[in-house]
Design brief:
- About 0% of the residues lie in helices and about 40% in strands.
- It is an all-beta fold.
- It folds into two domains: about 10-180, Immunoglobulin-like (Sandwich), CATH 2.60.40.1220; about 185-450, no CATH class.
- Strands 11, 12, 15, 16, 19, 20, 23, 24, 25, 27, 28 and 31 form a twelve-stranded antiparallel β-sheet that branches. A five-stranded mixed β-sheet has the order 1-10-9-3-6, with no helix packed on it. It has a four-stranded antiparallel β-sheet with strand order 13-30-29-26, with no helix packed on it.
- The longest helix is centred in the first third of the chain and has 4 residues, at about 140.
- The two termini are about 30 Å apart.
Length: about 450
């Protein structure tokens, strides 16, 4: 979850991209929400319940959590855009009433009346952008949603805000849609070693206990370097093994569409079942792209061969990329791309932009498979001598697969490991030189576990 660049065009289905990313980043589509669904929001840290002020009124622009209908252009029936310099803004028509459940790291809003099909809505999370603008009662007055330690909600993480900063208010737009036959399945990544969600493995947090790395960790390996005569002998620096691995924090939401003809994730072609010589069936899944927090690792290098320099990445972020984009129209993966006969290249499910996945029956039981494209960002990483680095919107792909099991209460447990080696080449710009450090995530180095909610009645 991040604040979007205000060059969005909500009226054309373009929700912009995360502030702090590159201008060439994918644009995100405006999502739809079925009439009978709740809004679900996840956080990486515990939130202070008193900071979540929901007025439950039809009035506009009140409270730290808001759900609103968006003002429409009567000529087009789409959101009315107001240009404010380089920013594009949209206004509230009226507030939406309903019930709000405040969890430890989540919000769930259920409207009193179902979302109207084709109607534009938004929910807003308030924060305070600069430390100079913060007031003592921000976390109770409705000015900002805060963590339990009083820190304001950080909404623009890619811009590397300081620990005591908040961020601009978040507005996430969506369109009401008809009810779906598919099943919405929230997934939590449990357990995680970064227990407090601060982007670091701290003393006192649960570690490996001398065993192999647990789930929700990523193994990172140094695979060489080209110091360009400036940097020598890089190594990963850690007091304990856990500090040389990446620990991920972040819930994931999915849509279970049911049985369908299984198409290969690489080729897109139908897979034939060798036992029947008929198209193979599998359970079709869609993953909602989200932002996942990853913990810091530290690189130690020698400048000119003898001056040691430590460079922690600090908190990192992995942004899952949508399967298709709403802009530009000539993009290879444009959501509305059409064939010569006028039919859509992407089917109705794919045009939502969800990341395709499948639960496939194998000889060893059901297995979940998905190829996930991501952007990797290390916005807090500072390079010696005022240098810069390329770990902004750095594209990687994880080809994930692993067993699916079901607990007695109906909860689904998905374990995933990567089948591909993932290169992470760090290119620096420092003192008129461009040294490179070659890192990689080995095959099997990504170990994820996601736990679903009970679906057994």
């Amino acid at each position: 979850m991040c604040i979007r660049d205000r060059h969005w065009e909500i009226e054309f289905g373009n929700h912009g991209f995360c502030q702090g990313g590159k201008t060439e980043d994918d644009r995100n589509p405006v999502s739809s929400l079925p009439a009978d669904r709740a809004i679900r929001i996840n956080f990486t840290r515990d939130i202070a319940p008193a900071s979540v002020v929901f007025e439950n009124t039809t009035a506009c622009d009140v409270g730290s959590f808001r759900v609103e209908k968006v003002e429409l252009n009567p000529a087009t029936g789409t959101p009315m855009r107001y240009d404010d310099g380089e920013k594009r803004k949209y206004r509230c028509e009226s507030g939406v009433t309903g019930s709000l459940d405040v969890g430890t790291r989540s919000l769930v809003f259920t409207p009193d009346e179902p979302w109207e099909e084709g109607v534009y809505y938004r929910y807003a999370l308030q924060s305070v952008n600069a430390t100079g603008g913060q007031l003592p009662d921000d976390c109770t007055s409705g000015e900002a949603i805060c963590a339990t330690d009083g820190k304001r909600l950080q909404t623009a993480m890619l811009r590397a805000p300081t620990n005591d900063m908040g961020g601009p208010d978040i507005e996430n737009h969506f369109i009401g849609a008809a009810p779906r036959a598919s099943v919405y399945q929230p997934l939590k990544n449990l357990p995680t070693a970064d227990l407090n969600g601060n982007g670091h493995f701290d003393s006192g947090e649960p570690g490996y206990g001398g065993s192999e790395p647990g789930v929700n960790t990523t193994d990172l390996i140094l695979d060489g370097y080209d110091g360009k005569g400036l940097l020598y002998d890089p190594e990963l620096l850690c007091d304990v093994t856990e500090q040389c691995d990446i620990h991920v924090t972040g819930a994931l939401n999915s849509e279970v569409f049911g049985s369908a003809v299984y198409t290969d994730l690489e080729t897109g072609e139908e897979v034939i079942d060798p036992a029947t010589n008929e198209p193979m069936k599998a359970v079709r899944i869609g993953l909602y792209p989200t932002m996942i927090q990853a913990s810091s690792v530290t690189l130690l290098v020698k400048i000119l061969g003898f001056i040691p320099s430590e460079t922690p990445t600090e908190t990192q972020f992995m942004r899952m990329r949508y399967h298709c984009v709403p802009w530009p129209n000539d993009a290879d993966n444009y959501c509305g791309k059409q064939n010569p006969d006028g039919s859509y290249v992407y089917d109705e499910i794919e045009r939502q932009g969800l990341i395709p996945g499948w639960i496939v029956q194998t000889d060893n039981g059901p297995e979940f498979r998905a190829n996930v494209d991501l952007y990797l960002d290390a916005p807090y990483m500072h390079i010696v001598a005022g240098g810069s680095h390329n770990q902004h919107s750095y594209p990687i792909t994880m080809k994930l697969s692993g067993p699916v099991t079901f607990l007695p209460d109906g909860r689904m447990v998905i374990n995933q490991v990567n089948a591909n080696m993932i290169p992470v080449n760090v290119v620096l710009s420092v003192l008129l030189s461009s040294p490179e450090i070659y890192l990689k995530i080995p095959v099997g180095g990504v170990k994820l576990q996601y736990l679903g909610e009970p679906i057994k009645q």
